[in-house]
Every structure is written in structure tokens, then in C-alpha cells.
């Protein structure tokens, strides 16, 4: 990685392109340019057959300059540093500060490229690229440009190695509540980048982080446990606790109370009906027969005054 500083004092980490990828991109560009030049030359010869030799020679030189020199300059200017070969290889030409190139950058690169690529068959460009720390040829040095990779290959930098199996559950009783978040972040970054560090530097960082974590937990690091394995085991224990807490709250919040068993309800007894009023017995008449009132029917209900038809 190469660190470039922009005009706003922002550091950019870019991966410079090396000689093999640049040579492949230049070879593809030359194949396309030569094919276009041959097609243009054939068209000029067919269309200028009636001209004299001097005119044909002048047109041939003009076509050579326009196609082999002006063509790459125009393509890099319009595409902001991405020719066909660089597109295929995932490369781009940028300024020293990381910005896109302009016409003057492409012009200087194209003019010097005629000397170090076309006239010397790429020998000067290869030597300059091998000597340069960032793989730049002479055209890049004079133009103030740099060829970088746009498609960075996948790396396992974000992979965090698991702790050894014999440390599973070893630190389940530690009190991790006093460890701050920035220290956990430092431990995670160390574990994800441990494979890219120098062994001695990585071991020293692991010892320092282990001492910091042990000071916050109140328990020393076991002598038989290496510092990197200790950090991996403690970080895994913290992640396991966070997962249990999160899933435990989710399950507690989503659990529904069991439904109460249905109790059969017997129908309520009907209230007792009040007994019908009993009409008083008719008073006996003088001849000993009981006289029924005309207003009260025999069943004890009061008369309505309506006499049914016969």
C-alpha cells in the first residue's frame, strides 16, 4: 500500500500497480492501437493511390502520429486514466495526490512513452518500473502520475481466528463489565490483522493488550495460555455473553402467556316464576249456589270486556 496525501491533507492508501499487470495492460493497448493503425493505413493507401509518393508518405507519418501517439493520449484524457488495457487489468492512472489526470498529464506520459516504450521496445520502461519504489516509469515521474489498482484482490484481513478448543469455557467466570469498548475494539483489530504483522511486533502487542484486559478483569493471564489465544478466548466469551443476552431478551419479549384452561360453565338456573294470583272464592248467594262474577273469568284472569263470538 502507498500512502498519498491530497491537497486537503487527507491520506489515501492506494495499491500501486506492479510491472506484470502494467506490461499486460500496455500489451493490450498496443495490440488495439496497431490494429487501428493498420486499418487506417489500408484505408489511406486505397484512397490516396492517385497521389504522389511524397503526399502518401506525409499522410502515413500523420496517421502514425495521430493513431499511435494521439490515440492513447485522447483515450486517457477522456477516460480519466483508464485505457482499454488498464480497464481489462483493473488499473487506473491518477495524479500523485490521488486525483484524476488531465490532458497535460496524458500528453507528457504519451510523448515520453514513444521513447521508452515504442523506440526501445519497453526496455527503458521496464527498468524504470523495477527501480522505482512505486513501480513508476519515466513518463509517470515527469508527469507526476501513478498507476494504481482499482480492483484489489480479496484478502482474509477481516477473518478473526477462533481460540484453541482447550480454552472453551475457560474464562466463563471472568467479570468483563469493566473492560471499555475501545479496548475491545483494539483486541478485535489485532486479532483480524495478526497474520499481517511481524511475529515479534505482534507478540509484543498481544502481551500489552492481554495485560490491559487482565488489569480490567482483575484476574491475571494464565501462564500456560499464550497472549493471542487468551485474547481470542476472552473476546469469544464476550461475544457469547452478548449473544445470550440479546437472544434471551428477544425470547422473553416474544413469549406469550399460556392460555387459561376452559372451565365449563353451567347455565344459570331460571328464576322461580311467581304463582298466579288466585281469585277469591265467590260469595254464596241466598239460595246456597255460588255466584260467579261476570268480570272475572273462571281461570282467575280479569275480563277484557270482549265477548267472543258464538
**Uncertain segments:** 1-11, 256-266, 290-296
Question: How are the strands ordered across the major sheet?
Answer: 1-2
Rg on CA atoms, Å: 49 Å
Record field, number of beta strands: 4
- Summing up helix and strand content along with how strands pair, one would put the structural category as mainly alpha
What is the residue-averaged pLDDT? 76
Terminus-to-terminus distance: 124 Å
- The percent range for helix content is 40-55%
The shape, in one word, is elongated
Which sequence of SSEs, written as H and E, runs from N to C?
A: EEHHHEHHHEHHH
Fold topology:
Elements: E1 2-5, E2 11-14, H1 19-47, H2 53-78, H3 84-89, E3 91-95, H4 103-119, H5 123-131, H6 138-143, E4 145-149, H7 181-192, H8 199-217, H9 227-254
Antiparallel strand pairs: 1-2, 3-4
